[in-house]
Structures are given as structure tokens and as C-alpha cells.
Amino acid sequence: MRDDLVLSVRDLSVTVHSDDGPAKILDHVNLELRRGEIMGVAGESGCGKSTLIRSILGILPHGAHSVTGEIQFCGENLLSMPQRRLEREIRGAAIGFIPQDPYLALNPVFTVGDQLLEILRWHGMPGESSDRRYTRSVRARHRERIIELLDAVQVPDARNALDRYPHEFSGGQRQRLLIAGAIACQPQIILADEPTTALDVTTQLQILKLLKELAARFDVSMLLVTHDFGVIGQLSDRVTIMYAGQTAEYGPTGEIINDPRHPYTQMLIRCHPDRSDELIGIPGQVPVPVSPPSGCRFHPRCPAALDICSAARPPLLYGEADRQAVACVLYSEIVS
Amino acid sequence: MIGFLLRRLVMVVPALFGLLVVMFLLVRIVPADPAAVLAGDNATVAQIEQIRQTLGLDRPLYEQFWLYLTQVLQGDFGTSLYSSRPIGADIALRLGATIELTLVSLVFATAVGMVLGVLAAVRRNSLIDYVLRFISVGGLALASFWIAIMLQLLLSMHLGWLPLRGRLPASLPAPPHFTGLYLVDSLLVGRLDIFVASLSHIVLPAFTLSLAGLAAIVRFTRSSVVETMQNDFVAYERAVGYPQRRIIMPYVLRSSLITPITQVGLMFGSLISGAVAIEAIFDWPGLGFYLVQAILSSDYKAILAVTLVIGVIYAFVNIVVDVIHGLVDPRISQKG
Amino acid sequence: MLILRRFLRDVPAVIGALIVLTLVIVAIFAPYIAPRLAEAFDSNLMMRLKPPSADYPFGTDGLGRDILSRVILGTRPALAASLIVVLGAMVIGIPLGLIAGYRDGWVSETIMRVTDVFLAVPQLVLALAMAQILSGGIWSAILALALTYWPFFTRTVYSETRRVRSALFIDALESLGASRLRILTLHVMPNVAAPVIVRATAGMGFTILTLAVLGFLGVGAAPPDPDWGLTIAESRQYLPQSWWYATFPGLAIFIVVLGFSFLGDGLRDLVDPRLRRSR
């Protein structure tokens, strides 16, 4: 693993064994996150973005599934790390997490303070060992730390906010609380799962601004999952496009937005309202993972599909210096 | 809270009044002439007529009803046709026994049922879950009077571990009457021997009586915990590294035990029903046993009185459950 | 067909269905299945209280009758009586629920307040009191149970009807001039049918159980009926020696009620997958 990489996902496949047969939710996904960068992951719903995040955190839902490939983080493969260590050292500690829906992510019958303190309680404050006794004074120190964080994410009246229940906050404020939870233990990476989808437009902008600020201030890399190219354009340095559990394309944000290669990327970008006056959608739907189309999974919806597209899966072809890559037969020449 | 209580009372009083009307009419219209029943097989017409007059059965129906209603409101249920004692006093004497039996069953069923329900939910689809699920359906399918007899046969008659019937052995006096619950009263006067004896007497009837409720509580708790665990906030708590056992206790439990608590009210109904047969089998001198005796001796006034008293207790318990529900859930109590 | 396949995958539901099916067949052909039909009713004091043996697999009772044959014959009153109770409760409860759910105002209010009256006391207690007042015997028990069970159907149908009514299409139909009766029978009833069937199936089991309690307490079936609850009551005077006397009728009740519960749960899962137990 190169020095500047904090996270490297290699050939990650997740297969769920359902009643109707095995379903490949993720199929040989590759992804690299460098120190200090924000990487956007885009695609329609059902493309496996959330599964990617859950695999990294090791919280795939219980039940029959198998995971292959590797997830390298700080020199260790998270997939072979025991659950106890993941729980103690990774989740919420070295890897922070911002959930999709701030209205549902907080437990309604506990105060905000209880829930945020719980994170520090099990991982310890930065520079503090995590297996110390949880005394009154430790808790008081954690409380002060949380109040500082709430100030940092601009929650008004931080001191009293801790003793209130989630339903007393607005959606935007709840998302700020959750962001505070994500940075509480000074993580190396933050995984953000559609952090603004559930919010109204003005709040979205504020939250995005806050995220960008915090990423720079706390020197943290971020994996930002979204289906909104507006968010990606504002925030991320690089983008990975996923379709039906596979990587379709990746590259620097500017190049992908201005010069998308994969037909799917082209259509995704065209769907964004800022990019055109008319409302455009992509005809058809993301295939169900139990019975994906043969060959390139996008070919049934692809306007540029050729005969060979249904025959074989196009490999991910890398451009100059691995800066970008695309999995589409139309671009076989860019390798050579 | 007071407004809420008043509203509940407004709902309950007409229902109880309606019950009184229905039962009163049934007693007066349907059955064989109560006067004839009381007079016995060899009575002459004149004797029956005289009894009819002393009981006021010759007056118009509405007059009889009015008379009965005013008496009932003063706590006077009339005289038992069978024992010639005031029914109100008989019921008061037996109330403690039934309350003690149902309370012990309720506490046992709730405590054990919730623990088992949580266990089944946490170990979902494991062997223990399947066993508990079978028990939770099977417990409701068991005829409690049958299982009572079977346990009597095994534990009392064959093994001699537990007493067969009654609340206390003949050798011990009943403790002085404070609450009517022997377990409490014996401790209040410091008679440990009476406490132990009454405990050994209540084990079998209370356990038998609790089975149906236990099954129901296991079932509701399991499904409620399972449902709560599907919530986004549980996924969030996992994603930020709360330890598994902390997610269950207290985070999932506090929100998922609300549903089973509301079911306790319904369960109390089945406990009272079950107590009728159980008390008859164990010669437990409570309301159920009294009802059976009244039925076997065609003591209509007593039947009517017991039905009404059980209705009042039932309504009271349900209101208490509603109040507890409001206290447990901050979202309800804060709405006022 | 998809529904049938989903049902067949639910093992407890299939077991329940098999139990219920067996019960129905046994009840219909009981006189032919019972191995000692004559000895089911005729007392034979020479054969009193014999423990289970090859000749009498369930033993004999206090009058020397064959318990196995009596348990088999007992399927008939159990099934028939609970069927009458549940159907009776449906006949009273469903129309009232439809009316209360579909109309507003005092009619609806009155119906629901009347259900409150019947739900103010646990069903068994009320049924017990009523059965005695109605002078006892199996028909009194049936009548009392039906009279105390209907409010459960009314409640179910009421809330379902409310739900269907608040869906837009009823308003649309009314504005198109469809008659009330037509809307109720063609559009509301099919929506209400599923939860009612689920409730009726589970209700069959609980009614068998309740009838057994009434029989046990002496306000249901009367001797010499082969009623299960009554048999268990009769057995008590022969304890602890004749353990088999109460054991087998009790097991019969358990298995039958379990069958209806499993079946009812399976049907409910089909109707409302959200509540699925297996989740």
C-alpha cells in the first residue's frame, strides 16, 4: 500500500444468499482513498454504495453472506480483523460515520448527550487509552469535549443540548450532532452515507460547507456516498461511479464532470437539474442483484450498446498514471 | 395527565354501566325463576310466591333495576342465595387471594417473559429462538386447568414437593389482615413461617396461571425487540462502535419494552379468566373460586356481583397500564 | 400460486394445516375411526380404570369406557361447537363492524360503545356467567361464547373498514353513484376478508380451549358426552392413580389448539408480511 493511501479496497465482493439464489451486491469493487482527500461515490439507489460502507465498517446485516477481497486500512486488512477490535478501535474511533437520515439515526428515548457520550466512553478521547475505568471525572471530561465539538459544528446552546431528546432538534441540527459524533474520536476517515439527502436545500448547503471545513480543519479523509452530482461537484476531489455493484468509472471530479466517459456517467450527469433545462431520467432500472444482465450490466439501458456488450464484462481500463479508469468497451483504446 | 385520566374514566363508566344493564336483564329475564330455584323442588306455589315478594321479584323491572343500582353504588350487592351472607363482604374477603395470585403470576410472567423474549430476539433464528417460539405458541394452546392437574399430579401427589391446595396449611393461622396478601401480611407481622408456607402454596397455582401470559409476553417482547433492531438508530449505534451488549441493554430495550408493557393490560384479562379454573382446582379462596361456587349453586346475585367487580378491576388495571406507558415514553409524556 | 408456495415454505403453518385437516377428517369419520365404538359409551365396571395397554392405548375411565374412542369422538363436539360459536360471532360481528366503520355519527358510536360493554370483562368470565344464567348445558355455552366473542370481529372489521374507507377510491366510487351496499360488498368486504379469516382461524383454537374450560367447570357439555374438558373434570376424583385419564384428553386439546394457532399465524404472515415472526 502506498504511503499516501489511508484506505484501499481491493476486489471487494459481497454475495448475499437469498431465498431466490445468491445475489452479488458488490462485484470486485476497487477504491482508493488518499490522505486528506474527499472521494465521492456516486450511482443510483441499489448500486451497492451503502453495502460498500457497511463492508468497510464490518456491519453487514446478519444472515448468510460471504465477503471476499480485502480492505486495507493503516496496514491492516479490516476483513480479517476480529469483531471485538473492529468495535473498539475502528468503528466510531479510527473511522467515523455520518448516517443518511438524521431523523431516524438517533434513538428517540435517550438524550443526545447519552448517545454522544457513549461513543467516547468505549473509544476514549483522543490520546486517552480506551480501557480505563469509566469514572465520574472521565465522564465529565468527555462531556466538556462533546460540548467543544458541538460548538465546532455550530449547534446553538451546546451545553444544554446534551440533556435534550432528539425530537427537540431540527433535521439540520440533528445532522450536526451526528457530525460531532463522527469527529469525536479524531478519526482518520469519515464515511458519509448520503449525509444531506434527508435535508432541505438550504440546510444541505450549510452542512456541506461544514463538512468541507471540518475535513480540512481536522485533517481527515472522507468517503462521501451520494447520488447527487451537485454534492460531489462541491465537495469531492475524486469520484468513483458505481453501477449494479461494480465500478463503472473513476477519476478526478473535474474531469469526470466535464468529460465523462462511461455512458452511465454521462447520463447520470445529464440527469442533474443544473446541467440541463429539461428533466431527464435514465430509462429502465438498476437490475436486481440475483439475476444481473450478462456482460456489461448496463447494456440493457445503454444508448451506445454494441453486440459484444452483452457477451463479456468489460474490464476496468486504466488511463495515464492510474489517474482515471473506465469499464466500457468504447474506450478500449485509452489503455494503449 | 389528569385530563387523560378523566377521558379514560368517561370511556369506562358507560361500559361498566352497560355491563350492569346487560347482566341484570339476563338474570331477570332468561333463567328459571330464581325464587323457585331457591325454594327447592318440594316447595308449594304459595311458598315460591312468598319468596318472590321478599326478594322484590314481583315489582316492575325498572323498579327492581333502580333499587339494585342504588344498592350497588353503595357497595351493597345483596345477600347470597346460597350462603345467606352479604355478597359484598364475601367478595371483599376473597379479593386479596385473587389479587395475590394474579400479581405473583403477572410479575413472574412479565419478568421471565421479557428476559426470554429478549434472548430469542437477540439470538434470532438460533436453536434457542426456535424453542422459545414454540413455547410461546404452545403456552397459549395449553388448557391451564389441564396443566394445573398434571403439575398437581406430578409435583404434589407423586413427588410431594409442593402442597396440593389452599393458601396455608391447616396448622397455621392466617396472618392479620392488612393488605389481604398473605405474602405481605406475614412479613409485616414478622411471621417468616407463614411467609414460607404461603410461598410454597402459591408457587404451583401462580406458575400454572402465568403460563399463557408468559407465552404472550415472550412473543410480544421478541417481535418488539426484533422490530426495534431494524431501526436505523441501531445500525447507527453499531456503525459508531457501541458494544453489542450496550446496544441491546439499554438502547434497544428501553424503546422496545414499551409495546409489551401495553400488552400487560390485555394479559391481565387472560389472568383473571385463567384464575377462575385455577382457583377452583387449587381450592384457592379467591374471586374465581367464588364465581364457580356461585355458578354451581345458581346464585345469580353473586354471579352478577363478581362479574361487575372483575369489570371494575379490569378497567382499573388498564388505566394504570396507560399511565405507565405515558411515563416510559418521553415522546408521549412531553406531548402532555 | 405464489401465495401457496410461500405458505408451504412456512413449516409451522404447514404443520398447523395438517393438524386441522386431520382434525376435520377424524371428526367426520369419528364413528368409523374409533376402535371401540360400543365401549365409548357403555359402562363396563369390570374394565374400570385400566392403564394404557395394547387393547386400550389410552386406558379406560371411571366407568370402564375406552378413553381413546372417547377422545376421538370428542373431536366432533369440539369442532362443531367452536365452529358454531365462531360463525355465530362472525354473523353478528362483521355486519356491525362494517356499519360502524362505514357510517359516521351516532349509529357507529353506539355500536362501538356496545362492544366496549362486552369487552369490559374478560371473555371467559362473561361467557361463564352468561352460560349459567342461560341455564347451562352445551347450547347455553355455545350461545354465551358467541354472544361474548362477536365484539372482537366488530373491532377488526371496524378498523379495516375505516382504513379502506379513508383510501381515496371509495370516495371516487361514491361520486360515481355506486350504491352503499354495492360498495360494501364488492369493495370493502374483500379487503376486510383477510384479517377476518386470520382472526377466525386463531379464534377456532381459542374457542375450543374456552369451551373445554366451560365443560371442565360444569357449565358446558354434560355427561355422558365425550367432551374433553368434561372428561378431565371427571378424572380428578381418580387421581393420583389414574394419570392417563386426564392426560390424553388434555393432549388432544393442546394439539388441536396448537394446530389452529400455527395455521392462524401462517395465514397472518401471508396477509401481513410486515408482522412476520421469522424476521
User: Architecture of the domain at 5-36 and 60-197 and 213-220 in chain A, CATH level 2?
Assistant: 3-Layer(aba) Sandwich
Main beta-sheet strand count, sense and barrel state of chain C: none
Spatial strand arrangement across the major sheet of chain A: 6-7-8-3-9-10-12-11
Rg of chain C (C-alpha, Å) = 22 Å
Number of domains in the coordinates of chain C?
1
Greatest interface and its participating residue counts: B-C, 59 and 51 residues
Task: Round the Cα radius of gyration of chain A to an integer and report it.
Answer: 21 Å
In total, the number of strands of chain C is 0
Form type of chain A: globular
Residue stretches of chain C low in confidence (pLDDT < 50, at least 5 long) are 275-279
Query: What is the annotated CATH architecture of chain C?
Result: Orthogonal Bundle
Would you identify the CATH H-level superfamily of the domain at 5-36 and 60-197 and 213-220 in chain A? P-loop containing nucleotide triphosphate hydrolases
In percent, how helical is the residue content of chain C? over 70%
Q: What is the CATH top level name of chain C?
A: Mainly Alpha
Which series of helices and strands of chain A comes N to C? EEEHEEHEHHHHHEHEHEEHHEE
What would you call the quaternary organization?
A: heterotrimer
How many E strands of chain A? 12
Spell out the CATH superfamily of chain C. MetI-like
What structural keywords apply?
heterotrimer; A: 336 residues; alpha/beta; Rossmann fold; 8-stranded mixed β-sheet; 4-stranded antiparallel β-sheet; 12 strands; globular; B: 336 residues; mainly alpha; MetI-like fold; 15 helices
